[in-house]
Specification:
The complex is a heterodimer of chains A (114) and B (114). Chain A is mainly beta and 114 residues long. Chain A starts with a strand and ends with a strand. Chain A has strands spanning 4-6, 10-13, 19-25, 31-38, 42-51, 54-57, 64-70, 73-78, 87-94, 104-105, 109-113. In chain B, the strands form two sheets. In chain B, strands 2, 4, 5, 9, 10 and 11 form a six-stranded mixed β-sheet that branches. Helix content of chain B is 0%, strand content 53%. Chain B has no helices and eleven strands. Classes of the chains: A mainly beta (114), B mainly beta (114). The interface between A and B is medium-sized, with 30 and 26 residues.
Chain lengths: 114, 114
């Protein structure tokens, strides 16, 4: 049974705080992703990683950074949280190509920045 | 520029009838498409996929149709059940180009009325 876990379901932070969101997958997947979901905007890709220590910017990387020191763990960092980063954050992982490539998602972290 | 569009933000259907959710895309390099279902406070879960070499894929009550010339895909749910009430996202990938990431639509909220 595939599993992607996220460190927190709900978080409340203050403007200017540094925020860490952690994601762990147990499927030995090479690829990991961070999205944010906002009403009317769907899922937007922030960053993704296709290998340990490798990362690529997604569509909306500004204000975020990531870290992937181990294959199973992908962290999203908000260097200085702002109110416009209040959102639902979703982590996903997938295996490398070879035909069927499905992303598996974690339960999400709902972040409120005050 | 929204490469994957779901133009209907919401849809209501009577229980037992057919639900048809639509998705349009603009990038002709997209060759793999997925549908996800998302309940509130949960991560998206994979429903069904289709590659560009097919025009139809069926899994139980769910069928996805792909019209490459129109750059359009649709998800049919027959018969619709109250438990199908959720937000549905379509996603597209240019897998043949070696891209690992998916572009998601903005979602359609389906409500199945008992």
């Amino acid at each position: 049974d595939v599993k992607v876990t996220q460190s927190s379901r709900y978080l409340v932070k203050r403007t200017g705080e540094k925020v860490f969101l952690e994601c762990v997958q147990d499927m030995d997947h090479e690829n990991m992703f961070w999205y944010r979901q906002d009403p009317g905007l769907g899922l937007r890709l922030i960053y993704f990683s296709y290998d340990v220590k490798m990362k690529e910017k997604g569509d909306i990387p500004e204000g975020y950074s990531v870290s992937r020191e181990k294959k199973e763990r992908f962290s999203l960092i908000l260097e200085s949280a702002s109110t416009n980063q209040t959102s639902m954050y979703l982590c996903a992982s997938s295996s490398l190509g070879g035909g069927v490539v499905t992303q598996y998602f974690g339960p999400g972290t709902r972040l409120l920045v005050l | 520029d929204q490469q994957v569009k779901q133009n209907s933000p919401s849809l209501s259907v009577q229980e037992g009838r057919i639900s048809i959710l639509n998705c349009d895309y603009t990038n002709s390099m997209f060759d793999y498409f997925l549908w996800y279902k998302k309940y509130p406070a949960e991560g998206p879960t994979f429903l069904i996929s289709i590659s560009s070499i097919k025009d139809k894929n069926e899994d139980g009550r769910f069928t996805v149709f792909l019209n490459k010339s129109a750059k359009h895909l649709s998800l049919h749910i027959v018969p619709s059940q109250p438990g199908d009430s959720a937000v549905y996202f379509c996603a597209a990938s240019a897998g043949a180009s070696g891209t690992y990431k998916y572009i998601f639509g903005t979602g359609t909220r389906l409500k199945v009325l008992a």
